[in-house]
């Protein structure tokens, strides 16, 4: 592609087409550009267009295309072809800085991004003159150009703020400092002087202040990793200017906008960050300046208004004070009673006030409000910063701070009492203040767990909280109601139980409030109260205590789901789930209605699943309904199937991916409840469950395996008789799962169920094949997880089919195979098997091999007899070997599930651990003793001699213990 | 945890590398790029205008020359003329004038004096034993030149001053041999090349010959400083044979009482121990460790600092070497230093502790028994940033090698709370190291079956909030480490049926067993 008019023309045409709204025009043009971008001169053509095109749209479009092209292609990846020719690379680097600086702002930004992408790859080694080229522009005096340089520098250097220290990084920083630090300092001083000269020229000031902000940001990046010698030597210049800027106010720079932060706010906010950086990391050097900054920032806070545009500045400034006040050697800056009082009065209290922006969110954007207020996504808010400052001050001054605030709380409550409808915000602030003062430690599970002992929480609850909850009009002062509910919720572990019980019906009443925040909080508070633990590990609030409210509670909760905006409210659904779980059989009478409502909901949400939490709790609630009802009367399982299967069928037919794994879990739960045979409705579905497409989605695998296990447990004979042709398909699933390191254990679950439940003759012909597959996998890639599952399986096989059958099938695959598996797998690895059931299976299986397998006594395998016994005794007595080989620790699961395939396990669909051996075998150690005794009577003299010749003394002692316990003797 | 790679840099310096990859022992990074001002605490590489202890009074020096204070100083041209003259007295006058110019605090005209060819004269004067004043003035002038930049030192060496100075060491006039010591110290301080060149010219026996019971203490100070410069610098280290020669006199000097002698002797030891375990071994074998530990308690910080540095180097060695320091009482000496008023001392003490904490659990137990945990937690809470960073390493090393019971003790002393608080520091690596410690603590809790209890504690201490915030961290590794902690320990609460919370991340595959098998 030569650099000529025709090519420029063609490129212009295609760029224009990429802006076309019609995809039929746009797509081919985009395709074309991708096709030609590998040609030499392509980037140069784009640069030419963005500079010289007559059409402004094309210029911007070329700039964006150029940036994206750089982003995709500049990096040279090892073993991949270089996508941009060296000539083009050189040309681009030679021209881009100049071009960027000459371009209008829109294009400048794109090119500046381009420079930082290239810089990330090439700077400094392959672009040594970049910095000098940039620095010389500082002298241009043209602040449009200077800001372009500063912006580019910022995007190049900001990674110093988060990258790990390394020699390479520090060498780069050193180089940057050598060329950049001094000119930047000069520029900083010159800019400040210019601000004074142009103090009355708003346009000039705007440009100058954006330069100052960028310079201040650069200072942060360059000083982040360590304190550079240059900045230590020039600290006076920087810090005294920063200090002046913090105290500066210029009417011209004040903006009318209430929301968007202005230049002055952004600059001061960054200065607060810089001061915080120095205070934290370079304390020793910064100490002389710190008191001045504390005073300046403190004055700044006192004089800054309530508008949203100041939020970031205020919260940064408060965070600075919070971090300084808890350091012991600055304690003295705060300890004066007057200072403390005015911090409380002028900084903390005003920033805890409920503002109109909060009010708007409360009314119109309840989800956002809840996220901030309840879930703690309020990191940058003023309230959060004020809370942190309270906590910081309490470290050294808990008593005085509490006393000061108590006074404020009382006066604010008095204000409220004078005229509630005018002054309700005072009470809100009072509650917030009490909360932040009282809470010293908090968890989701228990709410506040440690409280400030100087605050009487119960008294406040009785005098100020419960009164609001009791007010008959739930829709009056919704913010205060929400505050009161939240108070109960977070202080639940601190309040006496009788107060909580008193609150329960009041909270239920608030489920009907119009305010979404209010009824959501009510649901959430109830849910939290129901999870509290009392003595004996049972719930604090008992089903008996809830008995009078059961019906009301259920009705109120479901009614709340019909309030506007709460149709898929996850807090309410979770409260429903928790209520079911708490009330247990008390809900049985209401089940017909409840299941109808839940099914109806399910039908609606399955059209367009959008709230994953809501949906999850919905399925949990369904599971609870089923378990609770069928526990009392298993026969009712049929009626659940009747109401649920139509919806389930629809979900499966429409392949609603989010719900399919849930459906399988609920079906497993239902099928497991059936006492004997499998209903035909399930059998009709069986072939479909084996379809490969279903197994492609990782999220389906665990619930599908479980469902198939339920089929095998309940319907093995039906499968053998009427679906025998599906057995290969079933084993095919096993084969697929076993091939994957991530899913092999699932394959073993399935295989174990097949061995345990299927009639032997139905799988006879497949047995050898199964073992061959297992051995192949063992040989090609064995992992600890695989070996553990493999050991459990072969021992289960041995228990089920006998030790002789196991030995014979091994040796039929390859001579002496049995000995090899014993020697290389069972003996060295059995110690790794974990879990009581798995351990029992292995113990019984190995006992059988030792005592019921003639080949172990009469062939060359005999030499393995004592080592195997030794391993078994070790398995009984030694701690589990949970080591994992080094190379396995960082193993990558080759088929990590993709995004769409989440599997969310339903807790209430949980399955009891299955024990295929059961109690019949008794204590495995006794079983071993008895079996050995039997063996020794069959061939007298041999067993004791084998034991004494090669079993180690310790093991022998243990074994004698078993024999004694079983009251047998070896002969 | 994917944090592994990030530790590589530090891991490569472990004292026990290859023995146990989990034990993080930290050798000082000395060849690393620095952004800060050069270490202020270390003794100077080169010294100008020190006071000679043995300097005769000014009258003695100037006896055979006119009292020069009254005459106007000579110009460089005049100096050249003077040293070229046939008269020794004139030569002496010229040389003295040059020395005075070179002793000027501001901009001594070093370059000019070199350029006009005076150096070869000065070097020649060094051998004029019958003209002691001239000899002395020349030595002084050359010393001042050698104390300048590397280039300056190079000029002095290339004019053949080294053998002449070494010969001067034997001068019967104390002030002349002291001047030679000073000059040689400056040359040795220039770097490993000249240091080894001096060693090859047998400077060591010549220096050691001057140590006698009668050597005045001031003289001894300068001598010790020069010895320390002969021990200084790595890449390469001084030859082992030289070290073997230097150690016995250093051990002797370390038992004297003068604080300057002690300080420089300690610095010498600190240079010799700042290397591989074989280097440390040579020092440990002299049996000096108990004396170094004693000196850690010296009243003067200029002795404490290098003594602590030396012992810190030693405990970064093998377990056996560390044990020697422990047996010598380092653990009883450390608490005072961790509470020292100078933060640099606190930092070095924390660094030493971090290396002891990387040892086997037997040594960790001694650390606990000697009461090192409370001061460690104090440093985590109140130390300056650099000290906190070392203290955090101590916690990580501790938690990766300690027994479960030892980890419990650490947590009970308040370390967990302190490190959680530090998750707000503005340093990615420190954050990562803390997350790794917390992960280690969780693994201990897992063995005790107390994961749930620990989860609650971490949440109460504000840890969970911090982990969540760190999931927004720009550094991918930090983000991942925080995310892993949340995933592993905070999303699968069986008792409260928190498995239900697992959907919080919609796109997550939750095969519990996979997770178990792939973790330690």
From TrEMBL, chain A:
UniProt GO cellular component terms: cytosol; nuclear envelope
Record-annotated Importin N-terminal domain positions: 29-102
Organism domain of life: Eukaryota
SUPFAM superfamilies, per the entry: ARM repeat (SSF48371)
Pfam families: CAS_CSE1, Cse1, IBN_N
GO molecular function: nuclear export signal receptor activity; small GTPase binding
Compartment annotation: Cytoplasm; Nucleus
Keywords of the record: Cytoplasm, Nucleus, Protein transport, Transport
Task performed by this protein: Export receptor for importin alpha. Mediates importin-alpha re-export from the nucleus to the cytoplasm after import substrates have been released into the nucleoplasm. Negatively regulates fluid secretion and plays a role in fluid homeostasis by down-regulating cftr activity.
Subunit structure: Interacts with cftr.
Family: Belongs to the XPO2/CSE1 family.
Protein name, as recorded: Exportin-2
Origin species: Muraenolepis orangiensis
Lineage: Eukaryota, Metazoa, Chordata, Craniata, Vertebrata
From TrEMBL, chain B:
Keywords: Protein transport, Repeat, Transport
SUPFAM superfamilies for the chain: ARM repeat (SSF48371)
KW Cell cycle (keyword) present: no
Lineage: Eukaryota, Metazoa, Chordata, Craniata, Vertebrata
Organism per entry: Muraenolepis orangiensis (Patagonian moray cod)
ARM repeat copies, ranges: 160-188, 245-287, 371-399
Family, similarity comment: Belongs to the importin alpha family.
Record-level Gene Ontology MF annotations: nuclear import signal receptor activity
GO cellular component, one term: nucleus
IBB domain boundaries: 1-57
Entry's Gene Ontology BP terms: protein import into nucleus
Name of protein: Importin subunit alpha
Superkingdom of origin organism: Eukaryota
